[in-house]
Write a structure and sequence with these properties.
2 helices; 9-stranded mixed beta sheet; single chain; mainly beta; Jelly Rolls
Length: 138
């Protein structure tokens, strides 16, 4: 393990969620708990529908803490996701949030290996950039 790497910790997830902004100019805002090469853990809030996109570097494990939304994977029919649901998808899987049904839509995410904040590839040009997709909460 690299010198200075986190060996153990206890995080207050509810406090981190309360620290997410009420509004955002980006589609998503997140708060990172860990950011190690092997995995990153974070909470994030989805503020508006997200267009189809994928991530090249990580698999994602999303646990819905609050809210309800529709999620779509590739060309499959959208599925409703709400508090208490676990969503898992592998790197490269195209996914989107075509509708937010109940706010705030907040997820706890574990990404393996670490998800670089700028790792996002939008399917259609002009639908988003890393800067319009996510901001890191203070």
């Amino acid at each position: 393990m690299p010198e200075g790497a986190l060996r153990h910790a206890v995080f207050d997830v509810a406090e981190a969620v309360r620290g997410l902004p009420d509004t955002s100019t980006t589609m998503v805002a997140d708060h990172r708990f860990t950011d190690d090469p092997a995995a990153s853990a974070r909470v994030f809030r989805v503020y508006r529908p997200t267009p189809p996109h994928s991530h090249d570097t990580c698999d994602e494990y999303l646990y819905a803490l609050s809210g309800r939304c529709l999620m779509r994977f590739g060309e499959e029919a959208p599925v409703e996701v709400g508090a208490g649901r676990l969503v898992v998808f592998k790197r490269g899987v195209v996914h989107s949030v075509p509708a937010i049904l109940e706010e705030p839509m907040v997820f706890l995410s574990v990404d393996t290996p670490r998800r670089e904040p700028r790792d996002i590839r939008f399917v259609e040009a002009g639908t988003g950039t890393p800067d319009t997709f996510m901001r890191q909460a203070e």
